[in-house]
Amino acid sequence: MLYPQRFSQFTREHTDTVAALLCGFLLFLGWFALHLGWLGLAFLLLPAAYIIGGYESAREGLTTLFKEKELDVDLLMIVAAIGAASLGLWRREYHLIIDGAILILIFAISGALEGYAMQRTERSIRSLMSLTPDTARVLLQGREEEIPIGQLKVGDEIVVKPGELIPTDGIILSGYSTLNQAAITGESLPVEKTVGAEVFAGTLNGYGALQIKVHKPAQSSLIQRVIRLVEQAQTQAPPSQEFIDRFEKGYAKVIVVAGILLATLPPFLWGWDWETTIYRALTFLVVASPCALMAAIMPTLLSGIANGARQGILFKNGAQLEKIGKVRAIAFDKTGTLTTGQLQIFQVISVSKYTQADVLKTAASVESSSEHPIGKAIVQAAGDLDWVAAIQVQAIPGQGIVGIAQEQQVIVGNAVFVQRYVTNLPEELREIVQSWEQEGKTVVWVAQEGRGAGAQGSRGAEVMGVIAIADRVRVEAAATITRLKKLGVEQIVMLTGDNEETARSVAKAVGIDRVYAQLLPEDKLNVIRRLQQQYQTVAMVGDGINDAPALAQASVGIAMGVSGSDVALETADIVLMADRLEKIAVAMHLGRRSQAIVKQNIVVALSFIMLLLVGNFLGNINLPIGVIGHEGSTVLVTLSGLRLLK
């Protein structure tokens, strides 16, 4: 039973592909039957090939004709194919029926490929929805009760325990914690929040329990606004697609009208006999069928997509391969895109009597008991050193951490916190720390106190050194920006939810001059819209949930494949599978090559059509030669498009 179910599911999901395969199979059997002289069998198989391969095109063509009062290429192809078959029956040149079936087969294959290329599912929206829990823990008459998110009302008080996702936007009534907001705002470090601070749905609570008051309906939360923005941006049809649709309808209309005129006027104008007139009209429909014109585009784009895939660049559809070559402005997210998104030790400086290793070992001894990302970065950096975990460790949220290591009290934290334990901070370190902080780095002071030097506030400790911690800039980021500028990108900007100092520090390191900091998802979307008004074709490179609306709005959305969230990957048009920024320049080069080849193919296809049309009017070609010329030009432009495989 399993195999029939799988086959049934495959046929439902790949209807166009199955139709094209059956059409090709029946066409081959029909040709073979004609070759053996089995006319009866051939006349059963070939009509079946026509119906199976051409049903969808005929349905779409007739729907467009009756509902929109427009002619399109689908209907033109059906008319040309049926005309070839009718002429073959009339003149008993049955090979013309094969020619008509080939026309249908070519279009069926093209339709299947287009269907795969243009599919955009709603999985991104479902991924967004998964960021928030289904229920919230509400305080009702002093008791906790879980209710669905949809039942929350403004004024409800909810409890969020350590490690849980915030279910909806709200204001903290009691409690203190750090919240990881990277997925929503793009901030590289967890944010410390206490009473009176606003929290966002979908952010991850740290170590503290929080009591939160709902201050807006659940459907108005930031994450819900992100969902709506993604939906709106994805439903906007690109201008190139609208142009192709208009051209297709106009071309089909001209050819059909010309075919009707050619089938009726020559006997009255030039004295042609009706047999010659109909023959020339049907030949005209065959040679004017735009299969070569359609093949001028898709094989090229599919080859470019295959080429990109080999290099770790995933193009979601062929239209984006074309668009990436036209990009005039690029916006980069910071955290996880221009940077790795992982905190690392930037530099360690010790005072004269200590070494850098001493500073790291001492800090790691107390930070090993901490779950804070800064502590984890310090412990990771000291991994190869010999240190012992401290005891009696006490963390003071937002300030620092203390503990006893090897019978000495260790103090690690910010300057204000450490000054409670030391007489003074070394002046030479103050100047260095000030410059680090101006660059957006987080600085941790490390001090230790002698045995018995006592309680907090005794000021018997001495500073050992300082540790600078930062989100590391990707090594290839600066070279990528330089390369993009050489390719002629007119504007490169950074969009981030992080603070201004950190953003400008990273921008300076990679060579970006224009920075937009402290942005929410809708702010990024608005910046992309302003860039599009000025530069038309704009790319956005990002990795987080907060980038999803901007990725969807941008002419070309580019997501980081390894560090990127599911929503960013689904929303984006291009995915860098190995998170290698330099592949953006490779994608642009592929896009420009595809544009050049498509233009060449269009010229070749139109030239063939014009030559065949002129030959038909002059009476120098017959229908078989017209079909050979038509299909030959299709093969030629298809092979030309395959050049992008190299």
Overview of this structure, please?
The protein is an alpha+beta fold and about 650 residues long. It is about 55% helix and about 20% strand. The protein contains 26 helices and 22 strands. The strands form five sheets. The chain has a seven-stranded mixed β-sheet, sandwiched between helices. The longest helix has about 35 residues, at about 585-620. The model is unreliable at about 115-125, about 235-240 and about 450-460 (pLDDT under 50).
Question: What structural class do helix, strand and pairing data support?
Answer: alpha+beta
Intertermini distance = 44 Å
Q: Which percent range describes the beta-strand content? A: 15-25%
Q: Tally of extended strands?
A: 22
Oligomeric grouping of the chains: single chain
Question: What does the secondary structure layout of this molecule look like, with pairings?
Answer:
Blueprint (H helix, E strand, L loop, with lengths): L1 H12 L1 H21 L3 H29 L5 H19 L3 H24 L4 H7 L5 E6 L2 E6 L8 E4 L9 E5 L2 E4 L1 H4 L5 E3 L4 E2 L4 E2 L4 E4 L8 H13 L4 H26 L1 H4 L4 H15 L2 H5 L2 H13 L2 E3 L2 H7 L4 E5 H5 E12 L5 H12 L5 H9 L9 E6 L3 E6 L2 E6 L1 H4 L8 H12 L3 E8 L11 E13 L3 H10 L4 E5 L4 H11 L3 E3 L4 H15 L2 E5 L5 H6 L2 E5 L5 H6 L2 E3 L6 H36 L4 H19 L5
Parallel strand pairs: 11-18, 11-20, 18-19, 20-21, 21-22
Antiparallel strand pairs: 1-2, 3-9, 4-7, 4-9, 5-6, 5-8, 10-22, 12-17, 13-14, 14-15, 15-16, 16-17
Offer a few descriptive terms.
alpha+beta, 7-stranded mixed sheet, 646 residues, 6-stranded antiparallel sheet, 26 helices
Brief digest:
With 646 residues, the protein is an alpha+beta fold.
